[in-house]
User: Which sequence fits this backbone?
């Protein structure tokens, strides 16, 4: 019931619920409730949540699903100041944490993340993380990203190859009238 209530608070979309969600994020004993609180805070995009989200992101003892939801929330409300913490998540053994940190870096679009995302595209063991890295690189304004994407057209996974081609097609002829998010989806519907 608490999990559903917290989810509903996020749907309300009112800044007055931020303090309640922050309390749930910090003090609720249920990881499911903390996860829904992080997701709701991300949807509300209230910058007041950043410090608590960062604290949970850095807490390796926190539940994996909560940390993944926190990484995704930071993609909605984070700034270039959060890039180093999100980059550190790319070393995490948990795939969903790496995946959502990669997506968040693409949303923040700081060129400081390019080198690390280029490495992730080439070296991560999980294809969903590599696909997210390709998409993130397509959103970040850094001219070195295109050469890495060109080299990644030969990834061992055909789905990564497809995403790389999709991103390269957009980069070769971007339409200034169409937001990059419309063309480069953050993830597949299956994730």
Assistant:
């Amino acid at each position: 019931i608490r999990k559903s209530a917290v989810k509903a608070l996020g749907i309300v979309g009112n800044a007055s619920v931020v303090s309640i969600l922050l309390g749930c994020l910090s003090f609720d004993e249920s990881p499911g409730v903390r996860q829904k609180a992080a997701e709701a805070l991300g949807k509300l995009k209230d910058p007041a949540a950043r410090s608590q989200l960062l604290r949970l992101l850095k807490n390796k003892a926190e539940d994996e699903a909560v940390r993944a939801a926190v990484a995704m929330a930071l993609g909605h409300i984070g700034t270039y100041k959060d890039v180093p913490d999100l980059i550190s998540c790319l070393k995490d053994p948990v795939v969903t944490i790496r995946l959502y940190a990669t997506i968040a870096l693409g949303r923040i679009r700081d060129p400081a993340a390019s080198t690390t995302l280029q490495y992730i595209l080439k070296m991560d063991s999980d294809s969903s993380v590599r696909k997210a890295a390709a998409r993130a690189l397509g959103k970040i304004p850094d001219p070195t990203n295109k050469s890495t994407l060109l080299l990644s057209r030969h990834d061992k996974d055909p789905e990564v190859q497809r995403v790389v081609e999709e991103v390269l097609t957009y980069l070769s002829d971007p339409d200034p009238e169409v937001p990059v998010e419309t063309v480069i989806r953050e993830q597949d519907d299956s994730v």
User: Anything to note?
Assistant: The mean pLDDT is 89. The radius of gyration is 17 Å. The chain is about 70% helix and 0% strand.
